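Q: I'm writing up a methods section and want to include an example of the input and output format. Could you take the sequence below and give the corresponding predicted structure tokens, formatted cleanly so I can copy it straight into the document?
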Amino acid sequence: MRSQKLQPSNSLENVVKFTTKLQKFLIFLLPACLFLASYPQISLGGNDSMNLELSIPEIWLVFFSVASLFKLPQIWRKYRKLFLRTAIFPLYAVLSVCWSANHLRGLLTAGLLILLWYSVWNVVLVLLDAEKIYRDKLRTVFLSTTAIFAVVCWLQCILDVFGAGRETSLLCLGCTSESFGFPHPNGLTLEPQFMGNLLIAPTFYTFNLYLKRHQKKYLALFAFLTSTLFLTFSRGAIYAFGVAFVARLVVEYIQTRQVQRSTGSRTAGKSKFGYSLLTIPVIILSFAFTLTMQGVFAELGPTSTDFVSATTGAIHQLSLGKIDLRPERNATPENEPQDTDTSAIDVSSAEQLPAQATTHSLPVFDGYVAESTNVRVDLTNKALDAWNDSPRNSVFGTGLGSAGTALYQKFPDEMGTSKEIVQNEYASLLLELGLLGYICLFISIFPFIKKISAIELSYLITLCFFSGLPNAFHVYLFPPLVRTPEAEDAKNTN
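A: Here is the clean output for your methods example:
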């Protein structure tokens, strides 16, 4: 009888052990799943306001959340207060579905948000409890996966340059040589901006490993990933990386000075800061290498763009038109090639750019495309106008998932469709959840604000350039995946 009473407990314990192993296995798969954000996708149809598609990261999210259900009692026992505090924002977002202008999209987005919130909790707990050997293996898997997909980006460019079609290279429509004279890869994501965003966390993680271990292999990998980040030609990702990197150097300098004051030694802490400074020429050389390769791709590619025109056009685009070194024959007032009708082009989405050029013809753009910036700014302004439309919108928002519908209702002639997104997560959040949503968000994340790293800072910056959960899971899942092992290893070392 006694052994029979113990049986249910043993069964539960076995289930917990099995699900923990399953969690660890799924975490190994997470980097690859995130890099496969848009390919392949399962189309489930759609309606006037949204496309219904199922992606690999979404499938991973469901499986991992189900595997994590048996961890809920442990979380509740150990972290009840923090768990409830972080739940304030997602619960308010779910509640806002009740008054959403798009109930179906709101309901689906709410489901993803809850799964994402619970998954982040479990990723952190699994990594905190895991043995060092598991974290070491995870690091190897993470860096290897990133390197493989970075190689895919370079292969995409090579395939495009030598005439392979998009069905072979898997480049998005606006990513081929026909746009700027050289290809800019999107990996297996929707657009180059998503591929660039995916590379930010691994690049900073490699930077941290180099500072910690001073091994040349990490410096070499840092250079390769940085070059690939520049290759995506995503201004949002590049700017975010640059600002976060400078912020990281400033923090390193301040910490070095504090150590020197506390110890009374001018040399204390200089070693780590010195290794940080050593990465500056690596970044500069990586940019120069990528710029050179873009020029080479233009020379070998299907358009008539030459090395000088391609490299100066790239600088013009990345500098938002502030640095114009282009040859006079290419520097047109409107930044548009002759004999190309761009009136119907929405350059805010790479998928909508035309592939009009043929062999030896001019590319569609020869420098800074102002419309790509103006479209985003205009959408942000429209979102703010819709938010300020009534006191109810200002305080409570139009409801989760309703940004596109709300914009279409207020600006039907200008928007054209209710499927449009704001392309600025902060403006989108304000429109959908109002000031109360921001207050709930601040309450939920306040305990973590002081511990923000360069990775989180860079992703906070990138959210100014796009919005929407389905395409941006990496923003929320990559930081705990790489930061938790770092923090735990540092604690064990000390």
